[in-house]
Q: What sequence folds into this?
């Protein structure tokens, strides 16, 4: 590759833009699906935390995603709200429309650039027969997508998907072309988490050396954690000159996840001496944001997780305790308070009043609408009768039960009974209401265990057999009367559907989780026709545009 000019690129400032993609890439983590009301609460929390950009969703992918973007752009003030699109006219159009021409918004359009992606995803001859022809198609699609996105908003981000495995020459050609077409942020994702830090930094250096980059253009990192380098790679990216980091709370995301927001932010803060870079994050809110996301997506934060794990500031060994007591800095490089790891001195229990409850919920960043406050308080009192002390996780679960579900439910559990014994096969009886017709079906099931019997009975009642791909149960609070959260994943040949529910009664939670998954399946079927219609539109537009 010939060198066009010597690397003169100067990053626009020392401020690193924090681009949060918890609601998009984060939610792509298997089993991390969140409801729209949950996502809205998270978006509020992210705005409070001080993220610069919220990637709110991928509007073309489903009506629910489009609605999420519309609601976030309408309800959230502060951060730039971004919508994702592939580099096709239909996708860009859907992203632009979901952003409603309101406030400061961004369209983030992406297309694969590596040979391996070109050969597989663009394998069909209509994209070109040779690799060279496929590259031409991708280049044309990239330019056209950026140009179309510019008709909706000035703020357009372009991602060269799998940049980490893309050859230098083609990468630079695409990046130069999209900059010339008006892209204002250029993202170089390590989509597969393949790069070593030195390799990832070299990609930025190559682009900076070979492309002509106007001052206002910002470069971005987007790192996956398949080899455990996501945070390290994000940091070397900004050291090389990137000024945006794409990351997620708790590092959730596709496969092994994305770079964890709390880790990159604290790395920049703690090592400001070395890097001289700043973010706009209020780090004291990291812990609360982490808890909110963990509760809503159902992924437990491991105790040893950096920054937000419960042990991250704990000292067990006597020698450490002694050192910390004499001088905190002996074993701690940052203060627990600075990331919001505070111990709550006020305990909530049956004697707590409304003030105590709503005050704590507010501290946790949970906003309760006026019209549901009494109901939430009533449920809190009932729970406090059963449980001596109510902790934050109990509160999240309590409030979660008041969020409206995303989809219109199709089935409702009216009644269930499960019997087990040492000398008889577990048996379950359920009554399920079919909400479309109002009909109630009572059915019986037997199985290897009580849950198996229960799920079989439900299958009979909805008149369909489902494959249970995964069933897991975890305790999400402490004590014998703890909340159990059940997650199920079902399929009926084809896509999988997840359901989640929590209760102090895990058999009941299992039935609810299974029904939630069935409700998603039923809603998917109802949406399928409209999605197919949209997809056909994309393909027609594509064929008309570039083939
Ligand atoms: O990992 C990736 O390449 C992505 C793109 C859509 C930016 O998530
Ligand atoms: Zn990604």
A:
């Amino acid at each position: 590759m010939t060198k066009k000019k010597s690397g003169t690129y100067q990053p626009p400032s020392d401020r690193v833009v924090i681009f949060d993609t918890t609601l998009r890439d984060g939610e792509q983590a298997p089993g991390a699906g969140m409801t729209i009301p949950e996502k809205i609460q998270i978006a509020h929390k992210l705005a409070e935390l001080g993220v610069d950009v919220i990637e709110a969703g991928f509007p073309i992918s489903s009506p629910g995603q489009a609605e999420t973007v519309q609601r976030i752009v309408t309800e959230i003030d502060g951060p730039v709200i971004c919508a994702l699109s592939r580099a096709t006219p239909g996708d860009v159009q859907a992203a632009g429309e979901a952003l409603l021409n309101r406030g400061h918004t961004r369209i983030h359009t992406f297309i694969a650039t590596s040979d391996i992606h070109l050969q597989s995803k663009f394998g069909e001859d209509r994209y070109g027969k040779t690799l060279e022809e496929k590259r031409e198609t991708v280049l044309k699609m990239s330019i056209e997508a950026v140009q179309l996105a510019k008709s909706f908003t000035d703020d357009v981000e372009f991602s060269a998907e799998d940049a980490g495995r893309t050859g230098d020459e083609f990468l630079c050609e695409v990046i130069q072309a999209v900059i010339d077409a008006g892209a204002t942020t250029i993202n170089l994702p390590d989509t597969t988490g393949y790069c070593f830090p030195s390799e990832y930094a070299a990609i930025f250096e190559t682009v900076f050396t070979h492309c002509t980059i106007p001052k206002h253009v910002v470069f971005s990192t987007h790192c996956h954690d398949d080899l455990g380098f996501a945070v390290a790679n994000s940091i070397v990216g900004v050291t090389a000159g990137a000024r945006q980091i794409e990351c997620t709370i708790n590092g959730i995301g596709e496969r092994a996840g994305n770079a964890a927001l709390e880790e990159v932010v604290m790395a920049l803060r703690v090592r400001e001496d070395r890097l001289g870079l700043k973010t706009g994050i209020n780090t004291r809110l990291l812990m609360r944001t982490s808890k909110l996301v963990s509760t809503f997506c159902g992924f437990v934060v491991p105790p040893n997780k950096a920054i937000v794990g419960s042990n991250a500031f704990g000292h067990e060994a006597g020698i450490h305790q002694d050192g910390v007591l004499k001088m905190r800095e002996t074993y701690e490089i940052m203060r627990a308070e600075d990331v919001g790891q505070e111990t709550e001195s006020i305990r909530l229990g049956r004697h707590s009043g409304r003030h105590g409850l709503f005050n704590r919920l507010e501290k946790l960043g949970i906003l309760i609408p006026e019209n549901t406050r009494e109901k939430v308080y009533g449920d809190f009192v009932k729970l406090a009768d059963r449980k001596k002390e109510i902790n934050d996780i109990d509160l999240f679960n309590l409030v979660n039960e008041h969020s409206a579900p995303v989809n219109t439910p199709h089935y409702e559990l009216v009644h269930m009974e499960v019997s087990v014994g040492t000398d008889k096969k577990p048996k379950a009886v359920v009554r399920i209401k079919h909400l479309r017709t109002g009909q109630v079906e009572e059915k019986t099931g037997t199985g290897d265990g009580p849950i198996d019997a229960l799920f079989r009975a439900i299958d009979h009642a909805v008149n369909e057999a489902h494959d249970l791909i995964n069933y897991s149960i975890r305790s999400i609070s402490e004590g014998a009367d703890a909340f159990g959260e059940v997650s199920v994943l079902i399929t009926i040949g084809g896509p999988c559907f997840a359901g989640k529910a929590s209760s102090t009664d895990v058999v009941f939670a299992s039935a609810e989780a299974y029904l939630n998954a069935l409700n998603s399946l039923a809603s998917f079927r109802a949406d399928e026709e409209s999605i197919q219609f949209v997809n056909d539109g994309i393909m027609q537009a594509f064929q008309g545009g570039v083939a």
In short: The mean pLDDT is 88.
